[in-house]
Amino acid sequence: LMAEDMMVNAQILKQLLSKSGCRVEIVENGQDAVRAFADSDEGHYSAILMDVRMPVMDGLEATREIRALHRADAQKVPIITLTANDGELDMQKSRAADMNAHLGKPVDANVLYRELERLIK
Question: Coil, helix or strand for 88?
């Protein structure tokens, strides 16, 4: 699942991930990410790529809401921050929201692949 409000960024990332065999579902804001996750079967999503700055609901709040859902995979699904805000304070905010990794934009495909491999077991 990818939550990204800039469709150009989302399509580029989707192409990169599709080349490695990933199936990607794109939503445009955090509220839609929470809804998609909540409406899915448990274990449906292997990971969530979450932009931080989005309209309607930002990625930090969306992550907190996903983690608070009453289902087994809500605490386990890896959530990776994707953001242009790559400072130490931003990383701390991601950790505080219970995100598993923090990647800056533009995303380095090799770094993203390594993080996904590390987090998806």
Answer: helix
